[in-house]
Amino acid sequence: MSDVEIPEVDSVSGTGVPIRGNDIDTDQIIPARFMKVVTFDGLGEFAFFDQRFGDDDDQKDHPMNEERFQGANVMVVNANFGCGSSREHAPQALKRWGIDALIGESFAEIFAGNCLALGIPTITASTEEVGALQAYVEEHPDAEIAIDVDRELVTYGADGEDHAIDAAVDTAQRTALTEGVWDTTALMKSNADAVREKARELPYVEDGQIPDAAD
Amino acid sequence: MSERTLYDRVWERHKVTELPTGQDQLFVGLHLIHEVTSPQAFGMLRERDLEVAYPKLTHATVDHIVPTADQSRPYAEDAAEEMMSELEANVREAGIEFSHPDSGDQGIVHVIGPEQGLTQPGKTIVCGDSHTSTHGAFGALAFGIGTSQIRDVLATGTIAMEKQKVRKIEVTGELGAGVEAKDVILEIIRRLGTEGGVGYVYEYAGEAIESLGMEGRMSICNMSIEGGARAGYVNPDETTYEWLAETDAFADDPDRFDELKPYWESIRSDEDAEYDDVVTIDGSSLEPVVTWGTTPGQGVGITQPIPHPDDLPEDKRDTARRAQEHMRVTPGETMAGYPVDVAFLGSCTNARLPDLRRAAGIVSGREVHEDVRAMVVPGSQRVQRAAEEEGLKDVFEAAGFDWRNAGCSMCLGMNEDQLEGDEACASSSNRNFVGRQGSKDGRTVLMNPRMVAAAAIAGEVTDVRELKEVTRA
């Protein structure tokens, strides 16, 4: 088995792009017709496609189309972001567009899990604080946003201003990101003997369904 | 923290160890895969030189992209053919059983698992599909996962998870005439919200749930995720066991059934189990529910007025305004009379045999409205055959419905079955998101299968209770 380097994600910094609205589902983030692919490559250009483009591929008003938000790597969202389908294509598309972290009021569970599996933090903060950050980013698209994952702190500012948000990062997510164990395959593979033991204990698993120990 | 619930028990029985993240490593008893979310995971395995650890606990089907009209190979659409070929190659190489269309066992993953007896009480079941919660109807702990997690499960037979809280949702009383499981879950989501279940697993209980057959329980557990809960379940009981006894797993092996039944009994929640939250809903007060908006939580009883955004909680108003604009509905009016262009009977929520039977009871002796194109997409090839044998196909076709082959179809528009332009669709599926059914201007109204049948005939959303059931000759 080849070793996979798993970087520690202690912090993310960069500029932001605000995406407003509650209950933004994964069908909006990446419409199903762009999922007829067998790899995730190239999904970035289809992120929020139907919000960004009209029938003739003409550009619509959308933050991701605006020049001033090109290069942003922190997406600032509202409540229940990423609800709906389990498609990892959604965070994969955002990542390929350039997103390294999301700050929002709340995230749907499967979406947040998929982000974690890609090393993308999903930071939560209050409605007021997220709203203030979205407004600030719109006023100051060049504002630097700094996320300290371990301290659960978001700071941002431009033109010498300095704002701070007391944010929250789920405990397991924080540990996984800061200690570089968010890619769990090798870690769990190392427990293969205990897994086989567990399988043997379960009445519904038949002996013939359990692989031999020799790996 | 919850104690002595089915969730706690199944979790403990499957916990391998605690990981450094504080998550638990859970053994996966059944891994279901399909063509959309698994190919990238097989690619990741190849990159890392890993093999599938538990191929015999893995089962594949093709459902999302499969054409429901002409299924001859190669598929007309190149992308669909490529995805199918990739799946065929991956399962062949790994030695994974495949409910291939040629086998006669193909269908939507959440229909075929239960009907083949793969889905059983007390199993942990995962699939790269959010509606995996369906399998909780049998007392399994079942939830959707992303592709990187599919890689984990393929490579290790396990998954890293954080334990959730448990909310018991007790639906008391008897459901009224014309009120179905679908209405119960739409009402639950309406009341608790689309993110009310985040961080929770839902245990559905109470007389109204217990008196449902397995198909109704599946419809409810299926849509747990629409309420934010990644998993939902019903404790196994005699209804569950009777269903299981008829499946492939046990029909010819009653000894195996007897061997496993004590385990199924042992994982049931105790009468005095502790829950993190309990919600009670009076099932006898419900009526058919339809959605007026673009989230499954934006529902309303068929005789009730569509809410005015200003009357909703502040955090719901903006979404409601945009939804009403998209749907072109008027607050204060009911959804009855909302014109529909398409009627879709299908999906992992409502495309099982009893769903089709009930809808056929409404359709029989009537004709689809001239302005409506109506289609039935059975949930599996087995459902399709059974329905054809008992004459349901003839009933639907006589009324003007298009009878198609099994697949996900217009629930998410990944094959040729799609809404066009701003068509409005009466749909027995699970999501009314903007763009969900293949057209970004399309409008989806979620409802139970009999309500879909009624809408197809009337050409508009209609209270099915006002139509008389016609007995088939």
UniProtKB/TrEMBL annotation, chain A:
Pathway where this protein functions: Amino-acid biosynthesis; L-leucine biosynthesis; L-leucine from 3-methyl-2-oxobutanoate: step 2/4
Example of a GO MF term: 3-isopropylmalate dehydratase activity
Assembly and oligomerization: Heterodimer of LeuC and LeuD.
Reaction catalysed by this enzyme: (2R,3S)-3-isopropylmalate = (2S)-2-isopropylmalate
Swiss-Prot/TrEMBL keywords: Amino-acid biosynthesis, Branched-chain amino acid biosynthesis, Leucine biosynthesis, Lyase
Record InterPro entries: 3-IsopropMal_deHydase_ssu, Aconitase/3IPM_dehydase_swvl, AconitaseA/IPMdHydase_ssu_swvl, IPMI_Swivel, LeuD
Protein's recorded name: 3-isopropylmalate dehydratase
GO terms (BP aspect): L-leucine biosynthetic process
Function: Catalyzes the isomerization between 2-isopropylmalate and 3-isopropylmalate, via the formation of 2-isopropylmaleate.
CDD domains named among the record's database cross-references: IPMI_Swivel
Enzyme class, UniProt record, top EC level: lyase
Organism from which the protein derives: Saliphagus infecundisoli
From TrEMBL, chain B:
Single biological process term from Gene Ontology: L-leucine biosynthetic process
Keyword Transcription regulation attributed: no
Location of the Aconitase/3-isopropylmalate dehydratase large subunit alpha/beta/alpha domain: 9-459
Cofactor (UniProt): [4Fe-4S] cluster
A GO molecular function held by the record: 3-isopropylmalate dehydratase activity
Biased composition (Basic and acidic residues): 308-317
Region (Disordered): 295-317
Catalysed reaction, written as an equation: (2R,3S)-3-isopropylmalate = (2S)-2-isopropylmalate
Function: Catalyzes the isomerization between 2-isopropylmalate and 3-isopropylmalate, via the formation of 2-isopropylmaleate.
Name of the protein in question: 3-isopropylmalate dehydratase
Species whose genome carries this gene: Saliphagus infecundisoli
